[in-house]
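Work through this:
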Amino acid sequence: MGKRKARSQKKSASSKKVKLEENEVSTSLETSQQQDTQGSSIAPAILAETPTSGQSGTEEATVQTEQAQGAGIAEATEEGEGVTVPTAAGELATKDTEATPSAGTETTSIEQQADEESINQISTTAEKAMLEPNILMHIFYEIIVQVPFLIPGGFNIPLPFMGYWRPIIDCAARANLQSVCKQWAHLIANNARFWRDIHIDGNRIPSPPKSWRKGLGSDPENYVEPPHDGEVELPTVSDEMSRAVLSVERSQDSLINLVLVDPTYDPSPGLMQLGRPFLPRPGMLELIHTAMDKPMIGSLSIITKDVHFVKDLLDPGVYLDERYISDQEMILTDIEKVSLACDGKEADHFDVSTLPLIGSFNGIRTRRQREIEAADDIKHEKLRTKYKVWPKLHTLRICTRGKGWMSDRVRCALPAMRAPALRHLELNLYYGGNRIWLWTFPYAQLTHLTLATEERSSILLGIIGRCASLENLTITLRRNPDQAEFAHASKHVVLALLKDLSIQIDVGHAHDHDSKVGRRFLDYITTPRLQSLRFITRIVGRAYPIIYLLKRSHCQLRELYLDFYSSDLYPNPEKEDLDPFSEEFDLHELLYFVAPTVETLAIQSGVMDISFLRTLSAPHLQKIAILCFGRIRAPFIGQLVEIDGHAYDVALSFLRWAEKWMKGATVEEKSKRRIQFVAGPASDGLCGGTDAFYGRSKCEKCIRIPAPTDVREMVSTIRAMGGKVNVWWTALKQLKSRD
């Protein structure tokens, strides 16, 4: 049989070309080596007609997908394809530098592209070619499943879980495909891969207002229905919940990956009263309990202002008096707080299996015996509810944002006996009042841990020190160190199994120039098996302790990512523009130390001096990426703002080095080497920089423009030598009201 091709001209998911053969389907998208970021179980490239269910397969798929944020550089093909970036950066064309559209040309956003034309053409092609079901499933996967974003150099909007804002499943595309014919509807409906990733946005669920009876405590039951004079009642079940319920039913009893965005709401937003709780969205708890009872939830991700909803879900009873921590109990030492977070209290470890089954005795009872048994049944049922077991939960993410009216002084315990499969834990407690030691988790069994809190380093070190099985650690340090913290000597922590470490230092503007932030944490850990290190900060001087961490650990580092946002990077400390508040950071020394073993090197910064390339001798280096956010020459409102000559000089120097690097390589070495350069939008302190490039800016966006002629010529020369090189040239454009 000859080749059969089915192409979609406008594809809402990722604008990819799919080549179909009888036994093979390939795509032009090359994925990078993976790191724990995107947390839904995206299927591999080849799909079975009917996937198998079970924990082991689901966990493997989840681990493969969750690591997509970028432990490696996105590999671009010779045609310049294979790179996709989020939001504003996603609008940059992924074509080759030589075929880049003009500066005024903008790529239509993914969300605005329609599926109808793509579906119609695929339908016509399918009828003519009579595609086999397996081939159709490959096409459906390309359209329905939205693959993770790949960022040049493996960088991303620093370390978030993108699944909160970008669902894995394109529900509109799935519905459109199902409407084509009965065969397509049957194939999609019976494939669990298209249903087990469930994303629920509570803001799209109609939630009725209620009145609060003041002075009656913090129980949610104290809300009452307000009088409705002629008002139309809100629907009890929204389209959002109906779609989620259908997804649970069609997941075929396989583990589901559930993402909840704002699952509760404030029923009386105009009332300012501390201690007043939020209420669950209509139908939310019923869906969760249905999925729990099978059990089906393998991955649970929640972002909310209402931290008590999460605590009551994982550990029912947070509103009871015994869970409340008084002012006197809040005064604990750091050692006591670590013990509370890792060990909890004796009552947290109750064995539910020891409880007798309700109604198991069928003999004749006296009246007194019936009363005693009835009381015991009530007590046992409360205990079963209180100590809810999550036997299949392997991934848990909790992200709090803002502050609700309920103060956070209650404990939540999820020990190992109630979450035996938990291996991945992410805690993003952005509000300082959300104390990490009020959560008890089985840290000893975790392999992947993400922490972003405002706790002091001594508490964080104590918790991480209890993670005996930890292989991947992502930590965000936000607290400015005080004298008491440095005066108290912490116990040195050896992370014997740790392979991947990501450290982000993110503090308020008041401490932007304090180079000591994060120093205590870095000075008290040792990582003898570390292979990948990612360091993110706006102050270059904060990278000073990295070299001592690596020397102390005697590790063989293979991947190094340095992300300094748009901050200037001068490897030579004699430069006059060096930050006077930062200690000396010698990039030459760091690269010299890691050169014998490093395979991947990526650097993102503002104005940079790349003289370190002249002396770089890394025999195993395979992938290198430079993202340079240069200076703005002269901004014009409403016009394109081009990058100045600095990025141009850096690009030429980098490409000249790359040319020499490829000349001395063998054919096998050339096939493994990847080269990337991004001339990012410059920053003047108010606009541009990484905020525009990654879509975080509200006043401008980043678009792709043609690179200078001599840059394109050098790219062609390197490609003629067999080198795989990709160059992006970008500029800023002011956002208009319609944007």
User: Anything to note?
Assistant: The first strand starts at residue 4 and ends at 5. Residues 557 and 594 are 6 Å apart (CA to CA). The chain has four domains: 4-196, 197-211+236-254+256-267+275-353+380-391+393-422, 447-620, 622-739.
